[in-house]
Amino acid sequence: MADIAFDSLTRWYGESPRRQVLNGVSGHIRGGEFVVVVGRSGSGKSTLLNLLGGLDLPSQGTVRVDGTDIATLKDAELTALRRARMGFVFQAYNLIPTLSVADNLRLPLSLNGLAEGDRIDKWLERVGLSDRADAWPDTLSGGEQQRVAIARALIHDPAFIFADEPTGNLDLENAERIVGLLDGLCREAGRTLIMVTHAHEVVGLADQLLTIRDGRLVEADAGTSTGATP
Ligand SMILES: Nc1ncnc2c1ncn2[C@@H]1O[C@H](COP(=O)(O)OP(=O)(O)OP(=O)(O)O)[C@@H](O)[C@H]1O
């Protein structure tokens, strides 16, 4: 089952002085959960997300994805795990500007050797962009670009979605739509969604809330959002 267990995660940057960003963070994310990560600016939220998604490795501690300690994987194995099992959504959308919308969606399919079939049409429809398949990313609004990014993150049917402040550049209306899309598209397929956000409204949707303060976890339960001040 698609779960992530993390134990005593510590991440520091540099030596003398060593800058300690995460300091012994442990927890467990069950398959299908919507996990929201909150905390002040600079508290280590993106650092934690990057460690859980295998984009970065801890200075100490372990991340187990489906029971496998990802630090034991060779680079190519970790890349293959990320590519097949994970999808990423970032604040800045990160679409490839020289590829059309449809070609941006084609990329994860070809990287994973998956048949295209009607997947591109289907996913464009699901994010409400059926008429923009041939558009260049920079001709789309921010909200539209983020919807393309969501389709790109999901089109290869990953078990885990990592979203780092996906609504950070959007107005409230677009932000609500993006969060609703991510939540709905993950829940309907039992996907695990891990989202870093400053948006308080999102906390109420979470199955599990991770609040980071001074590099440590101060709250690990949904429903008790007292620790959620950014
Ligand atoms: N590559 C790096 N080298 C040195 N310091 C880093 C590096 N990456 C992050 N940091 C530091 O680690 C701390 C935590 O950064 P991180 O991006 O995880 O915070 P955050 O909680 O996501 O912040 P924000 O809400 O502002 O995005 C910051 O003080 C940052 O400057």
UniProtKB/TrEMBL annotation:
Family membership: Belongs to the ABC transporter superfamily. Macrolide exporter (TC 3.A.1.122) family.
Gene3D superfamilies in alphabetical order: P-loop containing nucleotide triphosphate hydrolases (3.40.50.300)
Keyword terms: ATP-binding, Nucleotide-binding, Transport
Protein name: ABC transporter
SUPFAM superfamilies for the chain: P-loop containing nucleoside triphosphate hydrolases
InterPro entries referenced in this protein's UniProt entry, alphabetically: AAA+_ATPase (IPR003593), ABC_transporter-like_ATP-bd (IPR003439), ABC_transporter-like_CS (IPR017871), ABC_transpr_LolD-like (IPR015854), MacB-like_ATP-bd (IPR017911), P-loop_NTPase (IPR027417)
Source organism: Spiribacter salinus M19-40
GO molecular function, one term: transmembrane transporter activity
Protein origin, superkingdom: Bacteria
